[in-house]
Design brief:
- It is built from five helices and seven strands.
- With 197 residues, the protein is α+β, with helices and mostly antiparallel strands.
- The chain has two domains: 97 residues; 63 residues, no CATH class.
- A four-stranded antiparallel β-sheet has the order 2-3-6-5, with no helix packed on it.
- The C terminus is likely disordered.
């Protein structure tokens, strides 16, 4: 499995720069890679509920409580490795305040994207990340906007393919009974006949 150095080095090779063996190597390539790699990776992880970067955790309820003006009763500590929340169960109103979550629920299960290590990144995500980094690096290292645009387009296509591949690992969601669906289909629940119960 590739390391962060391998991924960044491949991105530099794509734009015609020298490979690196460390983020501390001399030269513009290593300097730019060191500065841009972490945030580019986090941005890409935040764009989709990637199966390889998803965690579930019951949040820890804190002793401190939100101010009465917030209209929330409980404060919860968000995970330290959280990048983006994708789901809160049970479904409820909540608000994020810094690294805390305010809610009126007594128990919360949080599904979120975390900053997964490079050893967990599948090949389709790695390729998309390399293209995205190449686009970012091209402007800073080569000052070639045409090259940056080329790799931005490659990154967009690679991300779309990676999302499609990742989504194939999940079952399709079934249709859930809903009053909105019932109204749309004639104002009655499909479990009953039009004539009554």
């Amino acid at each position: 499995m590739p390391s962060s150095i391998d991924i960044a080095s491949n991105a530099l090779l794509l734009i015609g720069d020298n490979p690196i063996s460390s983020f501390d190597d001399p030269g513009a390539g290593a300097t730019v890679a060191s500065a841009l790699y972490p945030e580019t990776k986090k941005r890409m992880l935040s764009e989709h509920p990637w199966s390889f970067a998803t965690k579930q955790q019951r949040l820890n309820q804190l002793v401190q409580v939100p101010d009465d003006l917030t209209h929330y009763q409980y404060a919860y500590q968000l995970p330290t490795d959280l990048i983006r929340i994708w789901n809160i169960q049970p479904h409820s109103d909540y608000i994020l305040v810094g690294d805390l979550l305010y809610s009126n629920l007594t128990t919360i299960l949080c599904t979120y994207i975390y900053n997964v290590t490079e050893t967990m990144l599948p090949p389709h995500f790695v390729k998309a990340l390399e293209y995205s980094l190449a686009s970012d690096f091209a402007i800073s290292v080569t000052e070639d906007n045409t090259m940056a645009g080329l790799y931005e387009n490659k990154a967009m296509n690679a991300v779309s393919k990676a999302m499609a591949i990742d989504s194939q690992g999940r079952p399709q969601s079934g249709i859930i009974d809903s009053p909105l669906i019932d109204v749309r289909h004639g104002g009655f629940n499909s479990g009953y006949s039009r004539g009554g119960y």
